[in-house]
Design goal:
The complex is a heterodimer of chains A (about 230) and B (about 625). With about 230 residues, chain A is an alpha+beta fold. Chain A contains 5 helices and 11 strands, in the order βαββαβαβαββββαββ. In chain A, the strands form 2 sheets. In chain A, strands 1, 2, 3, 4, 5, 8, 9, 10 and 11 form a 9-stranded mixed beta sheet that branches. The longest helix of chain A has 15 residues. The chains are: A alpha+beta (about 230), B alpha/beta (about 625). Bound molecules: iron/sulfur cluster. The site of iron/sulfur cluster has 12 residues of chain B, from loops.
């Protein structure tokens, strides 16, 4: 039983065409339908007290999204999961939840994420050869690309934001890039920007397919930790 | 059964792909194989507009309550999506099951706005359905249309198999039943059309012949056989409480224009403003009971998760039980953290208090609709509102902390002179003047006013249906004159106005005859679609379409009709009789006001429906007639 919970949810192919704001709105309405006693902020325009770990870009599927939520009454993770899932549309599902002893802070805790990016190249290539190219891409000390921000594009060196990369053959056609990169409010590296850089610097003529987020982490003392582990840090 | 396959190469290339995937909360899921009738409800505009439309929600709900029918939705794909679909050879599909619309039994379009007509042709074509009704055979769906613009169905007669005139809730069941009978009979397409032509409120255009004089006016409208009626009378629902109204409406993923619960307090309007088509074609006024509305509000919030309810009606203040109803509703909405939005409320002490309580959001803007700038012209249009009313309303609002006010007007109204146009600016100036001291006293900032003018478009079934519309040049001249006047005097007033070219085309299509089918067809072939959107509308394209067909657009828009002329919609009967409209038109020229239905009956004819306000007990006079 707790007044606040951290939960993990997934989003599959069916709802990946929603933009981040649409996902927020979807949760807001699902929570209202669920009848769960969600807490609201005070003031002119009361909002539900729910915070998400990372924004979900349009097109992204994920098996590891996190959010913190507060309630007016104590609630068990089991009740929360089953009631919210009943009110959520097919394509988004709450998988897991843990109690939070204090106010949620997921947004400031998340610092990295793992992605699986499916891609293809125009000619058939040995996966090992592609992986070799990817690894030598990592040998660059400077990978500067133009990053779009609020005030126009500016050059950014994204190399320090890449922790590991490797390529392999996909189950079906094409290939998969496993990427472990910096994420979060401070230094977010979007996988589409990474793929653009990879394409530009290596000369691989990549066509990017689906992008899946399979994990996100918080870092404490140089260790990557599951967001549930640091829920009450 | 074919299903369209959607993937990233399509959906990640277009804006707002969530418009094209369906699967929203409360979307109805059925096995298409298990029903007898598949109905595609088609809205000929963008998803964000269509999903805001109450009529669609009602009919979707009603049709899907039937076990033998599956009603699905289809909207006009935005231009980026259409281009890709055509490139990839994908047909237009419904959001529920991704089935091409050509596989449906019936496709039903709703006609909310004349400028969406070309989208109808485009949607049929994109769906692989022949655009012209005469080219369809037994393998094709029937294409029907209803909604407010269907009161003059003629411009679309070439494309639509049958029209539904009036409210659809009851007649739609009769049509589905007839379809089932016909489907089992193995008879030809025409047999079904004959069957529905016998249903009150259904109009089958191919069964009527229009004869013209040399000058292009109509000599006669004749049924081709004894099997169809001379006139088709609109259908209405007499008792709104017993009519099915949805509380399990679909909740879109993306923001739409009216993204909230809509509660329909009543249908129709007691006021009878002479320019307003809705005020005549929805007669008589019928109310829903406060008990029913409160029940609907509660169950809708529960089933949708929406946090906003909007009270929708033509003139919310005229709801007879408004104070009691609002008290009850507010109690609920405050507890459940639901905002109430109250459009079309007359501003007075009561409504300002209500608005204050209803919505926790900032006091942003209030809107007023005086419609004309001078008292004389307001009397002409039967808008019973005076300068004094307006002044005191705005003063009240400013004292209550509102500091921006938007006023809606029309230019080009019958009998309008430049003096009336200038009256719009003068009204703005005098409101600024009269509120000068008030804002200071209440610690507010000064008043900001937006004056907005639309171009008056004469509509069928109004007392102004015979009137010429101002030419594009005259409308422009009036707009520029007004703009100039305001700019010279003050920066406190913003002026907004509409493109007169689009209004001109709206006027043409709304009072058009059957010959316009050729023009619409040509315009569409030249690329016309989304004509209601400035960025897609091309006047040149329409002019070319008129030229190619040897017709003249000002014949339809700018010509004064004689009271005795046969109008293209004379075989449609909305209950309000023509004699009444003539009298109203004549009274307009005299500046004579007509009382509203709550104060007394003026014998418009709508009492034939034996419903609503014509028979309300608390009326000041005894009976309708
Ligand atoms: S018959 Fe009388 S009361 Fe009824 S709608 Fe017409 S004017 Fe109003």
């Amino acid at each position: 039983m707790a007044r606040a919970l951290r939960f993990r949810f997934s989003r599959d192919e069916r709802l990946k065409y929603l933009a981040h704001l649409d996902v927020l709105r979807l949760f807001e309405r699902a929570l209202k339908r669920s009848g769960l006693p969600v807490s609201y902020t005070q003031g002119f325009n009361p909002r539900q007290k729910i915070v998400f770990g990372l924004p979900m870009a349009l097109g992204l599927t994920s098996s590891a999204e996190y959010a913190d939520i507060e309630f007016d009454e104590d609630i068990t993770p089991e009740t929360f999961i089953s009631r919210l899932n009943q009110a959520l549309p097919d394509g988004i599902e709450v998988l897991d939840a843990v109690p939070l002893l204090k106010k949620g802070s997921i947004m400031s805790q998340i610092t990295s994420a793992k992605y699986e990016v499916s891609f293809d190249v125009p000619q058939i290539m040995d996966p090992d050869e592609i992986n070799g190219i990817v690894i030598s891409f990592m040998d660059n000390e400077d990978i500067t690309v133009m990053k779009k921000g609020k005030s126009g594009s500016k050059p950014v060196n994204i190399r320090p934001l890449i922790y590991s990369l490797s390529a392999r053959k996909a189950d079906g056609d094409g290939y998969v890039l496993d990427a472990f990169v910096s994420a979060g409010a401070e230094n977010n590296l979007r996988p589409d920007l990474l793929m653009k850089a990879l394409s530009q610097k290596t000369g691989l003529d990549l066509s990017v397919g689906s992008i899946h987020r399979r994990a996100m982490y918080a870092s404490t003392f140089n260790e990557w930790k599951d967001p549930f582990e640091v829920a009450n840090d | 059964m074919m299903r369209v396959k959607l993937d990233d190469t399509l959906l990640l290339q277009v804006e707002k792909p969530a418009k094209y995937i369906g699967n929203e909360w409360n979307m109805v899921k059925k096995d298409p194989e298990s029903v007898e009738v598949r109905f595609a409800f088609a809205f000929p505009d963008d998803y964000e507009i269509g999903m805001s439309h109450l009529g669609m929600k009602i009919l979707y709900h009603i049709l899907n309550r039937r076990e033998d029918t599956y009603c699905e939705r289809v909207f006009a794909p935005w231009v980026d999506m259409e281009r890709l679909m055509r490139e990839k050879g994908l047909p237009l599909y419904t959001l529920e099951t991704y089935t091409p619309i050509s596989e449906f039994d019936i496709i039903g379009f709703t006609l909310q706005y004349e400028m969406s007509y070309t989208n109808i042709l485009n949607m049929l074509d994109l769906g692989g359905v022949p655009v012209l009704a005469k080219d369809r055979n037994r393998s094709h769906p029937f294409v029907c249309a209803g909604g407010p613009c269907a009161v003059n169905p003629e411009p679309l007669a070439d494309f639509i198999d049958f029209f539904v005139i009036g409210e659809g809730e009851e007649v739609i069941h009769e049509i589905i039943d007839a379809y089932k009978d016909w489907k089992g009979s193995g008879q030809d397409r025409n047999a079904f059309l004959e069957l529905v032509a016998g249903i009150e409120g259904v109009y089958v255009p191919s069964m009527y012949e229009i004869v013209y004089y040399d000058d292009g006016t109509i000599m006669d409208i004749m049924p081709k056989s004894g099997k169809v009626p001379d006139t088709v009378r609109k259908r209405i629902v007499t008792d709104l409480d017993s009519a099915d109204f949805p509380d399990d409406i679909i909740v879109p993923y993306i923001g739409t224009v009216h993204d909230r619960i809509m509660l329909e307090l009543f249908r129709g309007c007691i006021r009878g403003c002479r320019f307003c088509q809705a005020g005549f074609i929805y007669r008589p006024v019928r109310e829903r009971s406060p008990e029913k509305l409160n029940e609907l509000a509660r169950s809708s919030v529960e089933k949708t998760g929406y946090d906003e309810i909007s009270l929708v009606s033509l003139s919310t203040s005229d709801y007879s039980a408004l104070p009691e109803f609002c008290d009850n509703l507010l109690e609920f909405s405050e507890k459940e953290r639901v905002n109430l939005s109250l459009p079309s409320l007359r501003v007075d002490n009561f409504s300002l208090g209500l608005m204050e309580r209803a919505s926790k959001v900032r006091k942003s803007g209030l809107t007023f609709a005086p419609e004309a700038g001078t008292q004389r012209l307001r009397d002409v249009i039967n808008k019973g509102i005076t300068d004094e009313d307006l002044k005191s309303s705005v003063q009240l609002a400013v004292a209550g902390g509102w500091n921006s006010v938007k006023l809606y007007f029309m230019i080009g109204l019958p009998t309008e002179t430049m003096q009336d146009v200038e009256g719009i600016a003068d009204l703005g100036f005098s409101l600024i003047e009269s509120c000068r001291g008030i804002a200071d006293k209440h610690g507010g900032r000064g008043l900001n006013i937006t004056l907005s003018t639309s171009n008056f478009v004469p509509k069928p079934f109004t007392p102004f249906q015979w009137e010429p519309m101002d030419s594009i040049e005259v409308l422009r001249e009036k707009q520029y004159h007004l703009k100039d006047l305001i700019r010279k005097r003050t920066r406190r007033i913003r002026y907004q106005y509409h493109d007169p070219e689009i209004s001109h085309m709206e006027a043409v299509l709304s009072r058009g005859d059957r010959r316009l089918g050729r023009v619409i067809h040509t315009a569409w072939k030249l690329g016309a679609r989304f004509d209601g959107w400035d960025e897609h509308f091309s006047f040149e394209r329409w002019q070319q379409a008129f030229e190619e067909n040897g017709l003249n657009s000002s014949f339809y828009a700018n010509r004064r009709r004689d009271f005795s002329e046969v109008l293209p919609w004379d075989h449609i009967d909305t209950g309000v009789n023509k004699g009444f409209l003539v009298r109203e038109c004549q009274k307009a020229y005299e500046g004579d006001l007509t009382r509203n239905c709550a104060n007394g009956c003026s014998n418009c004819g709508a009492s034939v429906y034996q419903a609503g306000i014509c028979f309300r007990k608390d009326k000041n006079n005894s009976q309708g007639g």
